[in-house]
Amino acid sequence: MNKFSFDLFEQMPIVGIMRNVPLEHIQSIAGVYQRSGLTCLEITMNSAGAEEAIMLLSEVFADSLNIGAGTVCSLADLEKAISAGAGFIVTPIINEEVIRHCVGQHIPIFPGANTPSEIYKAWSLGATLIKLFPAGDMKPNRLKEILAPLNFVSLMPTGGVTPDNFIDWFAHGAKAVGMGSYLFPKDIIAAQDWTALGNIYTSLVKKYRDFIAGT
After folding, report:
1. pLDDT given at position 1
2. Tens digit of each residue's pLDDT (9 = 90 or more) over 106-142
């Protein structure tokens, strides 16, 4: 298993969500990602070759990246993800069995929830952090409204979070954010333009570090 490092996560709490990224480019992309200062990658289990990708990245980047599995919807998905070496688990839903299993095995679990009741339920089950999903139809100030009565909960908005707006989410109380397609542009990957990809990542890292320095 890729042992989850909370230190790495806290250094740069941005989770890049890789879905259906060509397997032949996975290692190159992860290398650019890591060298740019990003620390957490999620491979969705509904991607072709997901288990192979998790296994590869967990071995190559064992000490420098947190490699996790996303779109884990069942115990069967969870078993495959753990067997492949995933160090953290992300779900789009609340599956109590999945959450309890992860909590019992001390595997960080980020379940998806949307309403205050769902968020509280997932947190009460022992979730490490709650994936606020989908966040695309929300405004960042909704976070403040949720956190007013639930200030003990850690939230990670996902869905609709972009390089242009992610700082707004942090400014309103997010502990982390999840970003997908914006971090893995198909045209850039198809062209294998790793310099252009690195520019996207280093810009993201700079924005976050500038934000932290100013708080």
Report:
1. 74
2. 999 999 999 999 999 999 999 999 999 999 889 999 9
What tokens appear for 29 in the block?
Answer: 């992309």
Closest C-alpha to 89, from 44, 125, 55, 58: 44
Domain boundaries, the chain: 6-213
Q: Are strands 109-110 and 112-113 parallel, antiparallel or unpaired?
A: unpaired
Q: What is the sign of the dihedral through the CA atoms of 83, 84, 89 and 95?
A: negative
Where is 178: in which H helix or E strand?
strand 177-179
- In angstroms, the Cα distances linking 28 to 117, 166, 212, 213 are 41, 25, 29, 30
Domain covering 6-213 in this structure, CATH number? 3.20.20.70
Give dist(CA 162, CA 171) in Å, integer.
Answer: 14
Dig out the tokens for 187 from the structure: 């045209």
**Global pTM value:** 0.97
Helix axes 96-104, 75-84, angle to 10 degrees: 40
